[in-house]
């Protein structure tokens, strides 16, 4: 069936080493070293814990800042760039760094934005690359795609009415948008031009931004927000059938616990699992507000990032990943995107939590190894690069099929974090096809 396009126009991945479900039931309810309960029992323990926290918190902050400096973007921050391409709907993350990833001697004639959103990254790419001849925007969220589509249409109109000489140099840009998940990139590109998907041609650049946009988080009816009451939905694709409410009220108890443990990396997952299942006897959970209240009762620490809000964020993350089959979808999409690249083409991925980043890192290494997939990372050629044209890629990993340009991911600059607090956990990795 042909892809519907406008001319402008249940995941169960178990991470490596995870225990089988049967082992979950046999796991102890607490471990002195591995698990930290949200609930404090006894004044003495609370006092000692507070004393210990006071002692190690400065050292921890110092270590975290040291590790952050190792990956922070070295590029100059351009506030004007962010002002031009930010909207009330969304502020694009690592915008300057994404532009840098595709700024090179080779022309960028074709570009795919797999998560179009409000089109902040796409508009900046179009502006920076007047030689671009083809742009394809994809998004599984039709409401987000509609906003991005309008912004691209406005850009094309303004460019068409610009200076004649400059417009002649720019040539014609064909732009398409598709309501599709990025794992279907081959199908989408095949509908535009078969040579783009079968390996005979390929595209010059592909971007995947895995972050939640503000226009999704701020809408309480989508169920993504911890602070706004709404239905327990969390579907990126409104046509999908599975919701967070289904998981919480009907999935087996062991599966609920596995989701909280593996996808949310929540140390207090067992207590939350028991309370969630217990709620089913009195009607279950049907709104984000009810789920938040359950988490607050489980965690007696006061509000703040170190209290129930942090736990709630992890729980919401876990449910969103399960509802949208995000991790398996990501791994499949990375392979498909790499296949669609032209020689010397680049794929850039922005992730926002450790599970995503781990998959991107491991899959990138698998892609460049080719038949040498059994080799260790140390067996690949790692080069320290002092390149004035590309100073943002200081360490590269060379393989048979390509090069990982970011041995360590690039993270936002301090200036960007001050502008947009939601970007603080973003990580950018880039791979180039041989």
TrEMBL record:
GO: which molecular function terms? rRNA (cytosine-N4-)-methyltransferase activity
Against InterPro entries, the record matches this protein to: RsmH, SAM-dep_MeTrfase_MraW_recog, SAM-dependent_MTases_sf
Q: Report keywords, A-Z.
A: Methyltransferase, S-adenosyl-L-methionine, Transferase
Note the Gene3D superfamilies from the entry. Putative methyltransferase TM0872, insert domain, Vaccinia Virus protein VP39
Please give the family membership noted in the entry: Belongs to the methyltransferase superfamily. RsmH family.
Residue ranges of the region described as Disordered: 398-420
Pfam families found in the cross-reference section: Methyltransf_5
Ranges of Polar residues composition bias in the record: 398-413
Q: Which GO terms describe its biological process?
A: rRNA base methylation
Q: What's the protein name?
A: Ribosomal RNA small subunit methyltransferase H
- Listed NCBIfam families: 16S rRNA (cytosine(1402)-N(4))-methyltransferase RsmH
């Amino acid at each position: 069936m042909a892809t519907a396009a406008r001319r402008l126009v249940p995941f169960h991945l178990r991470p490596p080493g995870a225990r089988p479900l049967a082992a979950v039931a046999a796991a102890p309810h607490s471990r002195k070293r591995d698990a930290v309960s949200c609930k404090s029992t006894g004044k003495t323990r609370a006092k000692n814990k507070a004393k210990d926290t006071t002692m190690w918190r400065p050292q921890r902050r110092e270590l975290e800042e040291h590790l952050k400096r190792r990956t922070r973007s070295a590029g100059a921050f351009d506030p004007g760039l962010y002002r031009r391409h930010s909207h009330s709907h969304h502020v694009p993350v690592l915008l300057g760094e994404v532009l840098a990833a595709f700024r090179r001697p080779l022309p960028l004639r074709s570009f795919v934005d797999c998560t179009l959103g409000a089109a902040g990254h796409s508009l900046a790419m179009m502006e920076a690359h007047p030689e671009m001849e083809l742009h394809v925007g994809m998004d599984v969220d039709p409401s987000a795609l509609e906003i991005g589509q309008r912004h691209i249409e406005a850009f094309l109109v303004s460019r068409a009415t610009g200076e004649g000489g400059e417009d002649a140099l720019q040539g014609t840009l064909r732009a398409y948008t598709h309501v599709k998940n990025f794992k279907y990139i081959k199908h989408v590109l095949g509908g535009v031009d078969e040579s783009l998907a079968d390996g005979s041609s390929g595209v010059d650049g592909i971007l995947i931004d895995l972050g939640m946009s503000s226009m999704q988080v701020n809408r309480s009816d989508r169920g993504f927000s911890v602070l706004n009451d709404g239905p327990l939905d969390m579907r990126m694709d409104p046509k999908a059938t599975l919701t967070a409410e289904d998981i919480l009220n009907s999935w087996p108890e062991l599966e609920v616990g596995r989701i909280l443990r593996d996808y949310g990396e929540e140390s207090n997952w067992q207590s939350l699992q028991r309370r969630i299942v217990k709620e089913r006897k009195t009607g279950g959970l049907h709104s984000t507000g009810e789920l938040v209240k359950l988490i607050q009762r489980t965690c007696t620490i006061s509000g703040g990032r170190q209290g129930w809000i942090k736990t709630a964020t992890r729980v919401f993350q876990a449910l969103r990943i399960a509802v949208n089959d995000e991790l398996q979808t990501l791994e499949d999409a990375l392979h498909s995107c790499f296949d669609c690249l032209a020689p010397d083409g680049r794929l850039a991925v922005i992730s926002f939590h450790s599970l995503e980043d781990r998959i991107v890192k491991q899959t990138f290494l698998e892609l460049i190894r080719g038949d040498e997939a059994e080799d260790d990372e140390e067996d690949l050629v790692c080069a320290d690069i002092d390149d004035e044209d590309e100073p943002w890629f200081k360490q590269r990993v060379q393989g048979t099929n390509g090069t990982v340009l970011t041995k360590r991911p690039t993270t936002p600059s301090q200036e960007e974090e001050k502008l947009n607090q939601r970007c603080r956990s973003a990580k950018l990795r880039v791979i180039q096809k041989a």
